[in-house]
Amino acid sequence: MASLGRASAIIAAGTLASRATGLIRNIVLATALGTVGSAAADAFGIAVQLPNSIYDLIASGLLAGVIVPQIVKAVREHSDRGSAFVSKLLTLGVVVLAGVLVLALIGAPLLVQIYGSRLPGETQALALSFAYWVLPQLFFFGLYALLGEILNARKVYGPYSWSPIINNIVSIAGLGSFVWLFGLHRDAIGWTPQMISYVGGTALLGVTLQTVALLFFWRRADLVIRPDFQWRGIGLRHIARLAGWTFLMVAVGQIAGLIQMTNVSAASGKAASVSTLQTAWAIFILPYSVIVMSIGTPFYTRMAEYATAGDLGAVKKSLGSQTRLISVLMVGALAAIVAAIIPISRVFTDDASDAVSFALVLGAYLLALIPLSLQFGIQRTFYAFHDTRTPFFFTLVQAVIVVTTTLIAVQLLDNGALPLTLLAFAIALGQSLANFVQLGFAGTALRRKLGPLDLGGPLRSLVLFLAVGAVSAAIGWGVFLLLGGVSGWAASEKWTGIVAAGVIGIVTLGVYGLAMLVLRVPEAHTALRMLRRILPGR
């Protein structure tokens, strides 16, 4: 457990630093292009969505769900500790990513048309111009994830979580200088080639340098790598069978996301739309990335080892420990964000009115923060047993609900029953509903596979954490009201929003943490030990 704590602390520290700089990047981006009602921000959002969606489709689920267990197995069974296997894997990955990039560049006009079919013509044109600059990101995103997952499988956790800081610093510098040179832009018209290349080129350069940074840490993996096109014997048939289900799982998720983005773009330039959904999701996923990924990644590597050894009891115990630790931390984070939701939203918007619209979307997402966090451990447990088929089916259920709720929202909009200003909120709410249902299906499926999961204790603890979190959030909201509420100082400017969010968050987390210590919750002490490891110099 001590080694898991150290690994979690390394990942948490790197992820926290990466996400903190990423948050600054998003603030600068929101300053330059806006969020609510900004056609320029929506155009850039559609362009950036393209490489992210394609990358997720071909790599994300495959790497997390298939590659890590295969590398762990190769290390255990091969005399070269997996060097030959990883060499073939990397060579294949580079070839596939390069081929997909070429196809994506050729099909860029069609991709923009698909994702932005309800955007005005000038916004579509700007999105296409951005797309040609940012689409090459998918190659570097894919290579970055492949290298990072290999390092994680070899228990070299730091570089993968720390290297995004490079990307964020490049983006902050580039977008900041864009504002200095060209000013603030909200409309889709008036963009020169120099302006487009400045924004798009900055995005591409950051991801490229982030990927190159991993190569400087490759020696720690203790693998001898060379180009190897002899893919026979790598187990492609077995990997393809596993990856097939993972590919389908990610595909249905991307289709659901496509339908969301296509329909919410009807509000582009008028109300909360593409950029608002993306930015609110980035804030929503921040605690998930810092807490769940940092704790879950080393737990997953350990679970894969237990599953390979056939130790079912150890797998269940690991899942229970992970669930309790993630729950106590995530509930605290949720309480702090809910209490400070208006000041946080003000940081990413132009005025208090837009902050309220943004906060509605963010709040709708936040409803599913705990279910999504719990689902991480369940899904990775399936992956540890090389089961990618079952996660596909409970993801399919989620995607169906996402699509259905999105189409219902659009129908209500067309009938006049839903204001355009609430379209993004309704779509985000449907996403959260789908995550609740998905968690229920996932837990039931895992229980059928492994028998009783012994999660009664962790779930009872979760109820306690939620009760304490609700009280803490109420106290934090009281602080917000003391600062004047929506019409007061806390939401008057971006910088006041930052200060107010910090004050409210500290009060909320302080109350929550103190309550956990008074109640003698064991995971509270574990969290404190992790925090000490994260602090500079530790």
Question: Describe it for me?
Answer:
By secondary structure, this protein is mainly alpha-helical. It has one domain (about 1-530). It is built from 20 helices and no strands. It has helices at about 1-35, 40-75, 85-105, 110-115, 120-135, 135-155, 160, 165-180, 195-215, 235-265, 275-310, 310-340, 340-345, 350-365, 370-385, 390-415, 425-450, 455-480, 495-520, 520-535. The longest helix is centred in the N-terminal third of the chain and has 39 residues, at about 40-75. It is globular and about 65 Å long. The model has no long low-confidence stretch (mean pLDDT about 85).
How do you describe this structure in short?
By secondary structure, the protein is mainly alpha-helical.
Number of strands: 0
- Given as residue ranges, the uncertain stretches (5+ residues, pLDDT < 50) are none
Rounded to an integer in angstroms, the radius of gyration calculated over CA atoms is 23 Å
Euclidean distance between termini CA atoms: 18 Å
Please give the oligomerization state of what you see: single chain
Largest beta-sheet details: none
Number of domains: 1
List the secondary-structure elements in sequence, H or E: HHHHHHHHHHHHHHHHHHHH
Structural class: mainly alpha
Shape summary: globular
Query: What is the mean pLDDT?
Result: 85
The helix content is over 70%
Strand content: under 5%
Organism: Microbacterium telephonicum
Keywords: Cell membrane, Cell shape, Membrane, Peptidoglycan synthesis, Transmembrane, Transmembrane helix
GO molecular function: lipid-linked peptidoglycan transporter activity
Membrane topology: Multi-pass membrane protein
